[in-house]
Protein 1
Amino acid sequence: MPVELFHPPLDAVELDAVYAALADRHRRAAVVRLARTPQAEVPCAALDLPGAKSTRSYHWKVLREAGLVLQRSSGTGMLLRLRPDFDRRFPGLLDNLLALTDGQ
Amino acid sequence: MPVELFHPPLDAVELDAVYAALADRHRRAAVVRLARTPQAEVPCAALDLPGAKSTRSYHWKVLREAGLVLQRSSGTGMLLRLRPDFDRRFPGLLDNLLALTDGQ
């Protein structure tokens, strides 16, 4: 049976956790990649995150609990996509991140 | 003699440090206040930051080293203002923060 992972309700998503999640360049790169194809589900393994498996799992958990991504298990792996309601909670934040990332 | 505090050169200001600095609601509130009157120098004591003096000093250091504020000593206290070149480094980031804060 697939593991049901915790996702916070939208109104419990807070800027403290969002900015903290984005303060890591690897997590930020993953969010940027997901935000560029917001409808697409991407295997976690396809997102280029360094470190041991436990480290990568931790990064996904931080992003999920910050309300930035949806994560579900699929077969032996995990799939991630951008959380579609995030922009409603914090409008423009991800657009700004994308613009900053394009500019660098 | 006034203490000269370290301020990173603009091109050494990184998103990791900026987002980490903004991940604390008290630091974020101070930045929002400074960003609303970007030309004004504000005494640190006037910015409503809880905690012991050493804790407050730590918060100012985090904001200064993240490139968000300029800090200088004046008499027996410290003055802070928004770093005027920050928006050149990360255009729109603070505008977005202000918009999000207005909306809450």
Note: The helical segments of chain A are 15-22, 25-36, 53-65, 86-89, 93-102.
Protein 2
Amino acid sequence: MVERTSHRAAPEHTHPDDVPVPTALAALADPVRITLVRELAGSPVWTRSCGSFDVPVGKAALSHHFAVLRGAGLVEQRDEGPKRVNRLRREEFDARFPGLLALVLRED
Amino acid sequence: MVERTSHRAAPEHTHPDDVPVPTALAALADPVRITLVRELAGSPVWTRSCGSFDVPVGKAALSHHFAVLRGAGLVEQRDEGPKRVNRLRREEFDARFPGLLALVLRED
């Protein structure tokens, strides 16, 4: 038998290069996902677990928001024991959509 | 009695300076609205009536898409006799959201 640290399937990712413009815009057109992206941008990579964000949504909704962010090439995730930790794909996303993250990260 | 060229109410507009980031992103996260914006960007201002766009939607849906574009500060409209004509608010929108229109207008 194979030993596993988690029963969850590994998260599926989409590289920013494979993301259509409307998908990227829709992913960032949501206040909760903007908060997630801003908090990730302010933290060292791989330090933030999914439960560590200050957003007013339940676990299922949060899981959906992270799936949208992965599908838009914005977030990479990996499992570390019981935790799923996150990285903002800042350089790859900026290369594909110049200036878009900056718009979302700026004070408004 | 007042003579009127149209029974429609004048369209309501929102200036780009008053548009939140998520509203702007959501307005542009739609293939039909992207087509409208691209066609407007390729035409002289005030030359395109609402019926002149090559999009696969009915009249009610088209009217909704234009309302979303007005509400995001992307399009200005005015009535000229029986026609409602359009202008892309390119300079004002670019000043508020630098680089965003360019992302949508580029070849992908």
Note: The radius of gyration of chain A is 14 Å.
